Amino acid sequence: MTASSPRFTISSAPFIHCGHTTARRHLLIMAAALPALVPGILHFGGPAAAVLLLAVGSAMVWELLFQKLFRRPSRAHDGGAALTGLLIAMLMPPAMPWWAVIAATGLAIVLGRELYGGTGAHPFNPVALTTALLLISWPQLYDLDRTFLHHSLDFSAVWPLVEVKAMGAQAAARFSLMDLFLGREIACIGTGCAAGLLLGGLFLMAKGICRFEICLSFILGILLTATAFHLADPARYAGPLFHLLTGSTLFAAFFLMPEDAGSPVLPLPMLLFGLLGGVLVMLIRNIGAYSDGVVFAVLLMNLLTPILDRMRPKALGRSSWEK
Amino acid sequence: MIVNRLLTLGSSRLRYALLPPTLPTPDPLPAPLSVTLLSDQNLKQGMGGREALLRLKETPGKAFRLQKGDSVAKGQILELLDKGQAVIAPISGVIASMTPYVGDYGRVYLSLTIEAAESDLLPEAPPFQREDMFRAAPGLPGKPCLPETPPQRVIISGLGSDVLATNNQYVLKTRIKDLEAGMDWIRNTWPGAAIHLMVAEGQQKDWQKHKTCTVHGVAPVYPQASPRLLHRAVTGKEAPAESPLEEAGTLVLQAEALAAMGVLYATGVPPLHKLVQVMGKDGVGHLVSACIGTPVSTVLAHLGLKAEYGDRVILGGPMTGYAVYQDDFPVCPDTDTLLIQAPERGVPCQTPACLNCGACTRICPARVPVNLMLRVLEAGHYEEAAESFDLMSCIDCGLCSFVCPGQIPIFQYIQLAKYEHRRHLADEALRQEVAS
Predict the structure, then answer these.
(1) What ipTM was estimated for this complex?
(2) Are residues A186 and A295 in the same domain?
(3) Considering the entire predicted model, what is its pTM?
């Protein structure tokens, strides 16, 4: 072989790719969040939009700062930080002060993602982690009943989950399921409109970005446990549909639980992951201290993922799992 | 070829290219003036690299059986040393150069260049002996790898070795006589071996009348024609991952290889033309019949295709092939596909962080936990990958890299890890031998 021919590029196989990229994945998740976000912003107005924009912007700036400081290559084009910021804002009341928003995205990016090695390497869902930290540190910021004092709304301005926790199941009767489904309740910016969340969730499941195993088994876990509680004491515990449509249940089902880094990847572990997560949410809501314990349930399930990941079939031609 | 559905509940599925009902006529290339043959010098799995290269360079007194300047005849089996694989001279001529060539993962070859003589020398033409098949096999089109111990079953693959290759399908449709001669050889040599023919699903009926072999239909979904998956389809059992497939009693032959063996058995003359599926940058496929050893540049010039600076020239298919940096690289006995890829169509080289989306793990046909294994591979812990994360179960299909949204070169990591792991095992065995 002589050296006279033109030089070609060499690279490793395979030379073709299915075309799905990380950036596209993150963009599609953000697009799927829109149907839930738009009614939220229409209901709660300018303050909600301000929180949303500040969260997305500050998350990206935090990531940029961290990556500059630690001399890491910038991954801003992935959209991972923007997505984290967007999801954090969706879990915030519209009246969140600016410093809390910036602190939240800082915690999520630095403590939740980058300290563990960035995209995909974090053991906990950064959105759930940050919301849990803020919920413990400044519980009054998340008190929805107080944040809506200055709003005039055309529907009942009380927080359904707190109402039910304090007053028992008859309080649930004051909220029509249709109102809850269409987002006519006070809620966080992006978690109120169940119809929008369902729309986005169906889209993500159809695209295979959210694994349907996790989403559906999580919802099943909620419904089963809520039904069991309701049957045991109908006066104290509200019914399954009420729990499905209030709080951040559907938001968690489609945007928190199936998050890539913290969830298992094979069918059986995914089903268990979702089911146990749903059970945990109901346990925290009905017998725990918090009225909406979704983020804590997500964090606890993230802890279980490494164990669930070990439940796998034997590989081709292996007689045992380990030699 | 690629099915990207709007609703992607699963992942994208890759299908083998199937021949159209009206068969293309392979374009026969004229005999080239100079050919290059790569003679594989690896002793066994894991024994390539430095050891094989040193062995080539330090053979006492360069006691090769061939020397530069020797005349060779068309169809002559050329053996360099007692061990190592032989090649077959596709044209008559003079050996113009002999140089070692190091391929991927330490594979070492001796590259022989033969310049055509003015007239064809008459081959010595000894009557064909049955054991000659074993010597000639590595040089035949399709590169059959015949075991010394008789196999229990021979599986003939009628689908391609990669998604684009159509050579086996073409042979199945057009060279039935050669295939039957090949089966005769198998029956006469290994009377105990059962013959199984694997064809694309729906095409079994063409073969039902041949009672000599069992016909199975295979879904033309990549990588169902991979040898270990064919073994499972035939036997219903999985071959142990740590040992070669031959130890499970299975020999997998490409249909083109069987036809070549049939020709050699029936006529005593080794066939030296190879069917190659060529695809240029325009995406139009051509089926050509090229002499083994023909430089890639000659094939491209014949078809009027251009490969320019910066393009990728890929031999052996888009999923598992390899890119070469010169266009005088030869068509090898196992080159089923030749692909020219424009720079902008290629997959960029990058190593971003793994998202843990699990697409690789769910698509893996060997059920390897790729997402977990990748973490130890990135850290270079190859032994741990083999022990705890099923590295050696991998069947080298490349689907994990194909679906990875981060475009991480997972397949490359796995290939490197397998090479290092085998080298480690060979080193261990050598050390124990010395100690005892």
Answers:
(1) 0.87
(2) yes
(3) 0.89
